[in-house]
Write a structure and sequence with these properties.
It is a single chain. With 521 residues, the chain is of the alpha+beta class. It folds into three domains: 77-156, no CATH class; 162-267, no CATH class; 270-513, MetI-like fold, CATH 1.10.3720. Helix content is 53%, strand content 16%. Strands 6, 7, 8, 9, 10 and 11 form a six-stranded antiparallel beta sheet that branches. It has a five-stranded antiparallel beta sheet with strand order 4-3-2-1-5, with no helix packed on it. A two-stranded antiparallel ribbon has the order 12-13. The longest helix has 35 residues, at 2-36.
Amino acid sequence: MSVCGAAINCEFSDAMGISMLARGLKALNGFRHWLNTGAAWHWYSLATVTLSGLLIAALIVLVTSQGLGYFWPASVQEWVISESKAVDSPLQAPSSQRLFVRVLEQQPVVSAQPALPADDTAQTGLEYFVQFQEFVDGTANWRYAWVEAGRIIRVTRPQSLLEVHLSQGGSVFGYPLVIDSGEQQFTGQALHALLRDGGWRELMASGEVTEARLLLRLQDGSDFVAPLTTVRNVLFPNDASLLYRVRQFTTSLWVFLSTGPQPDYQGGILPAIYGTVLLVLLMSVILVPLGVLTAVYLHEYASNNLLTKTLRIAVSNLAGIPGIVYGVFVLGVFVYGLGAQIDQWFFNDRLPLPTFGTGGILWASLALALLTLPVVIVATEEGLARVPNDLRRGALALGATRSEMIWGTVVTAASPAILTGLILAIARAAGEVAPLLLVGAVKYTGQPLLESSFPYLHAERQFMHLGYQVYDFALQSTNTYATIPLAYATTLILLALVILLNLIAIRLRARLRRRFLIDYS
């Protein structure tokens, strides 16, 4: 019985193995058939497109949330802390001190003193990285320090605390005491309403009051006097009203877009927006004629010989050259070569100070035009190739010369493709920073690029650029806690500006397409 049972079990096991092998081979054959039919690539394409879309969405969400968060009023806490025991701590005090702080980070510590919090904000075993103000000779300076929770005696969020942004740069926290206009004093509820509802702006705009002053009580108990003529904005950071916070958010965003930079990373980026837009426009003026003429020659005039093949290979290779190489090329050939010669010819009285022999927005536009030239050439040549030959023959049959046929018919029909190349060029050039580091972009300049008198455009002057500002805020600042949010906000404005410029070009391209019955782009 045992031998027979063993034989039966062996036969059953062999049958099961053969059955499983058959099913596996059948599944493998089905998988191979699925691959051979091409259905698998549909799912592969769907997966890659989905992944790309998720990555782009994550980038947009990150930049938008961080960028808009820079303008949202952040609450400010009032801390009373005990004497510091650390020798290198900037928070040295005889017994205790009061601070207006913003908490930036928190982390656990191995050992901590027993905490005496007034609420649940401070916890034993934690330390906080905070931002606070320190006044030296009447000037507010931002300081940063780690504070152990055991040193915190009391934590409050007073709604009457005021944040005053000054035109000289920086901001001051304090309790508002009085606005003295010389003839009238505003205190208490009247002062609060005047500051909260923007009445202080109307007070200054009336022109009847020129010496009004705002008196604040600072964290150390001293008083700070700010003339209203030096105040850009005021807000109550701890106000609980959502409507008020939205209004302050809008005001902060408008100030950021409509003013220039101030010390201590305050102010806005209006000159950088002007510089970026003007740079893109000058680049387009240089780029489009050069790219279109090259593409028309290669496709309509030149024969398909070794020279044209070499030129096409060169154009394709130029698209892969790093941007910094174009910056070095323009700096050596045009700035130090042609620019220095222009100074000797026309600006000899200003030497040895260079005019065109140094970085400026003209040379930066030329560098970006050379950088994006392959894109326009390839897009234009593809557009010319899609124009039907019947259109060429019809123009010639109606008596047009070859030049009239090319420039009046073929190039006009291919104009949507030319604008497509320009759109791609703007998208790449607007955020390019590497060549601008060498040919004129600066952190700050007070010289205007446009004026109402001749020569109107100062193409030789240095300029501010949004991409350069992002680079400076993110990598060149020693105060990263203050500049990283500013870098996100500037990045958001740069993305919005690039999208706006592209939408204008796309709208123009759509209008050109409607002029033809066939889409030749």
